[in-house]
Amino acid sequence: MKIFVASAWPYVNAVPHLGNMIGSVLSADVFARYARLKYGKDNVVFVSGSDEHGTPIEVEALKRKVSPKELTDQAHEYDKKLFIDVWEISYDNYTRTESEVHKKFVRDFLLSIQRYVKTQEEVLPYCENDKIFLPDRFVKGKCPYCGFEDARGDQCDNCGRLLTPSSLIDPKCSICGSKPVLKNTTHWFFDLSQFNDKIADWIKSSKTMPDSVKAVALSWVSEGLKPRAITRDNSWGIPAPFDGAEKKTIYVWFEALLGYISATIEVNPESWENFWAHDDVTSYYFIGKDNIPFHAVIFPAMLMASGKYHLPDVIGATEYLLYEGQKFSKSRKIGIWVDEAQSIMDIEYWRYVLIRLRPEERDTNFTWREVVRIVNTELNDDIGNLSNRTLTMIKRYFNGEIPRVHYDLLDERDKSLISLMNEAPLKMGEQFEKGKLKAGTDELLRLARENNAYINSKAPWELAKTDVKRLSNVLAISAGVSYTLSLMLYPLMPKHSERLMEMLNVKVNSWEPVNLDSLAGNRIGKVEPLFSKLPADIESKISEILKETRDKVEKNRPILLK
């Protein structure tokens, strides 16, 4: 079994915020780390990259009188360093749309599906002030469906409907605010209408696609798919490969989607097809809900047109993460950005907190009160104190050597905890493979809390005086739970997981339940607290902390991201 994992390609004109992080990048990393333990690292590939073409970058470069690539070179390297060095994202390849491999693949792919591509005269908005045709997202106005006043010409951020600039009410150029005029131009269109029934049948028959994604995709299909332009009238992008399209470039959405394939080619040019052209593959895409139509309709239609590639199996789309009840906003300084986070608390605490707040069923509100509860109660009390008390008692009562299990003395409470210990990672994995990462971590907490209750009820400090064999059972089983917690923590907090493994003097190489007999006799290492609590008053200090952090961080950001 091969496992393909992808996170949505972030556009490089802004530093990602916490909502972007949990919507795609971090979620994909947590799953990829799990998948490598479950299926073997050679059977998993995890890719993404910087989406760097299009008008926003072109316009910014014109303003600054530099080349677009000069801006995106800096931004790409900045984001890549943040993801890999700071946030511990374990990409097999974090590439970019300026990659020569990517540009060649996109052009070749589009030529291979040319029978589904047609030219069409189109009347598009043109800004006479800026002297450019305006891409969809550079036209703003009122959404004709929900009345949202700040809808973009490609999609409404409020209701999620796909739009065109001509469908907006009272459209304006988002660069200068003037009203665009309409001008004729010729573009090349991918004829989605030919895939209406195929997409519907594929979505309905899928046994792995989340229901929320199915609902959005089927809603789209029910309205009737229409041809969608794949070329643009701008210069910063991949030149369109079609005859007569010499001054056109490929629309960034079409090429970024194909980046999942080109990024895999870069990982291993000899064996990349193992992850794309065979049935023995399961593919996972981690995205925000606003990207569902592109991943669940347009991308599969392109793959169907080619007839060569494996269709998505699980699209793990999150709802929105709000910051203290509001949408993240750079201009209004609402939220936290990924290059600010490490100055506030340990990045691995962030990783755990964000997965625990992952908005899987509905929009979720990030509050500092909840962050403090998660770190101080879940991490420190439920998990950290459990491992500390278990290993400390093994040091005290068994001279640091994990005791063996006396199976003839196991009672129902012992057996129940052993059963839960064996089932917990399997149940966590089942949820992960449905794209439900937060739900998976519930199993981690359930095991930790049950072990804490077990120790309290068994009172090993009393057994030490009266029954050494039953004491041995309690601490042997609890050591097994600590091993299992280190395993289940690994996808979320790899460094803290490894610290717990070091204390247990073990290495975890697979997603398998613990063998208690194999732990027996193992001499544990130095025992120290795994986590520490956040100050209870951090909520009242966060504004001051953020202000000081932002002053430092913004000075070091590349020009494009300031």
UniProtKB/TrEMBL annotation:
Sequence motif 'HIGH' region, residues: 10-20
Question: Which reaction is this enzyme known to catalyze?
Answer: tRNA(Met) + L-methionine + ATP = L-methionyl-tRNA(Met) + AMP + diphosphate
What positions does the domain Methionyl/Leucyl tRNA synthetase occupy?
Answer: 3-391
Residues binding Zn(2+): C143, C146, C156, C159
- Annotated residues that bind ATP are located at K330
Q: Mainly resides where?
A: cytoplasm
Which top-level group of life is the source organism from?
Archaea
Keyword set includes Transferase = no
Q: Where is this motif: 'KMSKS' region?
A: 327-331
A GO cellular component term found in this entry reads: cytosol
Instruction: Give any GO molecular function from the UniProt entry.
Output: metal ion binding
How would you classify this enzyme at the top EC level? Answer: ligase
Among NCBIfam families, the record links this protein to: metG (TIGR00398)
What is this protein's function per UniProt?
A: Is required not only for elongation of protein synthesis but also for the initiation of all mRNA translation through initiator tRNA(fMet) aminoacylation.
Task: Give the family from UniProt.
Answer: Belongs to the class-I aminoacyl-tRNA synthetase family. MetG type 1 subfamily.
Name of the protein described by the UniProt record = Methionine--tRNA ligase
Instruction: Name the source organism.
Output: Sulfuracidifex tepidarius
Q: In the record, what lineage is assigned to the organism producing the protein?
A: Archaea, Thermoproteota, Thermoprotei, Sulfolobales, Sulfolobaceae
Gene this chain is encoded by: metG
